[in-house]
Structure formats: C-alpha cells, structure tokens
Amino acid sequence: MIKNPGLREIKFSSFFPAKTGPYVIEDVPLFQPMWYVGMIRKWMETKHPIRFIYIGSYAQHLSAVKGKRNNYDINIPASIESFEWREVAGSPGDIEYTLSLKEYVFYQARLSKLQTLPNGEQVLVQQPPARPDERVMPETYTMVSGDTLNKVSMRFYGDTHRARDIQKLNGITDAETKKLLPGRVLKLPPKG
Predict the structure, then answer these.
(1) Average pLDDT over residues 108-113
(2) One domain, residues 24 and 84
(3) What is the sign of the dihedral through the CA atoms of 25, 27, 33 and 36?
C-alpha cells in the first residue's frame, strides 16, 4: 500500500561571503557573515517555525515573474533541525555552513459538517483546513486612542473572551478598565 508522503526534509551547504564577488547579486546589501549566523541562531532559539523560500535560480525567477510556472520553487514553513558553521581556511571572514530543515505543519482541529446525500443518507464531510496563522504573538501591546480591553482581545485573539485574562495579567481593576490611557503598555497572555 502506498502511504502518504512524510514531511519534507531539506539539507544544503553553502557559505556566507565576507566580500562581494560574481556570486552576489548586484544591488543586494551584503552583511558580515556573522550577522547571518546570529540571525539563524536567533530563529532557532525562538522555537517558532520559519518560512523557507527557495527560487531555483535568478533566471528561473525571472521566467516565473513573466508568467511561466516554475516547478523548482519551494515555499514552506519549516523548523531548523541543525545548523553547523565554521570559518573557511584560506578565505578569511567567509563562513561555510550546513543547514537542515524539516517541513512544519500547523496543527489545528478540522471542522466536519453533516451533509445529506441525494439518497437521504447523512455523512460527515471533513472540511479543508483554514489557512494557519503564522504570525508570532507579541508579548506586549501599547494602547492607542480609542482602545479598550475588548478591542485588544479582538485584535490579537479574534474574540473578546480574552479581555478578562489581559485585565488580570496586568492587575487592572474593574474601575480602571473605563479609564485606560493611550501609551499604556499591556502584557499579553499567550494564545491557547
């Protein structure tokens, strides 16, 4: 029996150049190699998925822009499984690295609806999953004019049910809720 494919794994090696050369696209700013190393390590520490986008080559990218379909492109959420780097001998400042990624799937309950078939039989039909929310939840929010706890809850959680949690986390009394001033920094509880 053919099984469903597992999560894709991507592994590649390359280098971060210390100086410009023919391998660097013109008009693209080039940072020091350790800046890139620091960014990848920071992404790993957040324990949030990243978005991995690969475009086959610059020429293929141009053909995709002109309307031709490019089958070599990859655009997936992924976790960074490993990141190894070292300075290149003979090329001072260049950093060689190997990066291993694994496709990430956002988990969520799937909605099922009861449908009646033409013969009268009722069946459960699983609905396609909604597009996942990939945004990283901020830890704080600075209130602006016209904000209320309900509006803040609606903005970050999609409903007003978390307004009480925000109130409790920030030690706001019921009397204070009607007098919240713009500029006040609120701590936001994590989603879930």
Answers:
(1) 74
(2) yes
(3) negative
Q: Are 52 and 101 spatial neighbours (Cβ–Cβ below 8 Å)?
A: yes
Q: Examine the domain organization and report whether 29 and 94 are in the same domain.
A: yes
Q: Is the dihedral of CA 146, 149, 152, 158 positive or negative?
A: negative
Please check whether residues 40 and 90 belong to one and the same domain.
yes
Supply the pLDDT for residue 79. 94
Total count of domains within the chain = 2
Q: Do both 31 and 89 map to the same domain?
A: yes
pLDDT band at 60 (very low <50, low <70, confident <90, very high): low
Q: Which domain holds residue 22?
A: 9-103
Q: CB-based burial of residue 153 (10 Å sphere; 0-12 exposed, 13-18 middle, 19+ buried)?
A: buried
- For residues 20-30, give the mean pLDDT: 77
The values of phi and psi at residue 18, to 5°, are -85, -25
